Amino acid sequence: MNMDKQGHILIVDDNEDILFALNLLLKPHFEKIRVTSDPLRIEHFITAYAPDEILLDMNFEGTSANDGSEGFYWLQRIKALDPEAVVIFITAYADMEKAVLAIKAGAADFIPKPWEKEKLLTTLTQAVRLRQSQREVSRLQQRVADLEGGMPTIVGECESMKSLLRTVDAISPTDANVLILGENGTGKDLIAERIHAASVRSQKPFVRIDMGSIPEMLFESELFGHEKGAFTDAKKQKIGRWEAASGGTLFLDEIGNLSLSMQAKVLTAIEKHTITRVGGSRPLEMDVRLVCATNANLSELVRQGLFRQDLLYRINTIELQLPPLRERGEDVLLLADCFLRQYAQKYGKRMPMLSDAAKRKLMAHDWPGNVRELRHTIERALILNSSNTITLANWTPKSSMSSVTDDTLNLETLERQAIEQALAQARGNISRAAQLLGITRFALYRKMGKLNL
Q: Which of the residues 67, 71, 191, 329 could staple to 58 if both were Cys, CB 3.0 to 4.6 A apart?
């Protein structure tokens, strides 16, 4: 059992045999693999999947040239969406001149077809580490900036946000467990960091765990650590996240995604204030403040038998509900200006103004992705803008999704459309989307994996 698989990889190639072969080769070595033969879906995958690296073909069907121009075009599009994206070209028409051009254009590396297995794995592993290092540096820089400023800045002038922040400031000095509820992208992590920064534990660790991203087989090791020799590949002792947070705050994000067996283990740790490393026999006392967050309706999951009621009682001493962006009025424009200022400084550009038409568009949109979607929209608009005014003339909101129609009878297409529409209607809540589709949450996860959603 390989306990150390890391990295999300997106493979873009119009040859289905290549996609199959790469998926088969890479799956045992990396955490998640997504493949697509359609480069038009790259933006979807970058937004929804956040790959650590993109393996990109340089030549696609429908073009007569084999000069890699298609690959260079899509590289530019990827960099516009994510300037720090790690892109590795693959091509059957390799030469030194093209490799040099690829690196100059912003590619991280260049791999010829047919590839050498070991060289390919080494290149991809190094690229994953590069991307994760970049993200860790960005996270630490933001954390330092937050600490220097006293606590994370949360922009909001609407009454619901003011009321929420008054409650946050009142509960932060206590040691009460807090449950933060809200749709994806509303800023639950920022609220958790603010609670920690204003607490007596502020000089101790703040440790975040995305509970939905931990495979069940890795759960105990990731959360509680393991002893040397506890399982294959356990070559040394590992401190778990719970232990790393001792004395500080432990933020369990997306706790609604936990299976019942995982919930039982978390409940035991909370009740006993102890953890035991995998392969260990001695309980270790832990002093942590627990802050949890989810976009799920936990009370409904309790009624469905999918979430333990005793665990819900333990984690929601204080319950906070973040309003969705569509209910925050002109906070949309305040946030847009804030993001414009941030990204203008980041990319060394003069800060443009939003036109009146752009402001109307931003206010009219319902923002299913909330603040995260707004941030992405503003960053992309600023990168592509070349004037002193942003008009958003070519912006197509993501919620402009066609409904399922009878234009096609292809089962895979109909299934994809139904899942996308259910997710949009449920605003990203997996449990609610599964309920709308009449299937279990786990069946929905399997179908999303199959369809690369």
A: 71
- Classify burial at 315, counting beta carbons within 10 Å of its beta carbon; exposed 0-12, middle 13-18, buried 19 or more: buried
HEC letters along 145-201: HHHHCCCCCCCCCCHHHHHHHHHHHHHCCCCCCEEEECCCCCCHHHHHHHHHHCCCC
**DSSP conformational letter for 297:** -
Which tokens hold the place of 127?
A: 């690229």
For 320, the enclosing helix (H) or strand (E) is strand 318-321
Residue-wise pLDDT tens digits, 408-448: 566 777 787 788 778 777 766 777 778 788 887 667 777 77
Token digits for 17?
């045999």
Q: How far is CA 54 from CA 94, 119, 121, 336, in A?
A: 18, 16, 14, 29
Cα 39 → chain centroid: 21
Quote the tokens at residue 403.
């409904």
**Sheet containing 318-321, strands listed edge to edge, beginning at the edge strand earlier in sequence:** 206-210, 249-253, 289-294, 178-181, 318-321
**164 with 171: CB under 8 angstroms?**
no
Q: How much is the pLDDT for 132?
A: 74
CB-based contact 302:310 (threshold 8 Å): no
Q: pTM here?
A: 0.60
CA end-to-end span of the chain? 27
Pick from 245, 72, 281, 161: nearest CA to 153: 161
| CA distance linking residue 33 with residue 11, whole number of Å | 8
Q: What is the pLDDT of residues 326-350, one digit of tens each?
A: 999 999 999 999 999 888 888 888 8
Residue type, 381: A
- pLDDT-based confidence at residue 136 (cuts at 50, 70, 90): low
Q: What are φ and ψ of residue 361, in 5° steps?
A: -65, -45
Q: Which residues pair with 271 in a beta bridge?
A: none
* 252-273 pLDDT, tens digit each: 999 998 889 889 999 999 999 9
Q: How many helices (H) and strands (E) does the chain have?
A: 18, 16
Given a contact cutoff of 8 angstroms between Cβ atoms, the answer to whether 249 and 193 are in contact is no
How much is the pLDDT for 3? 45
Tokens read off for 340: 């414009």
* Backbone dihedral angles phi then psi of residue 314, each to the nearest 5 degrees: -70, -35
Q: What angle do CA 271, 275, 292 make, to 5 degrees?
A: 60
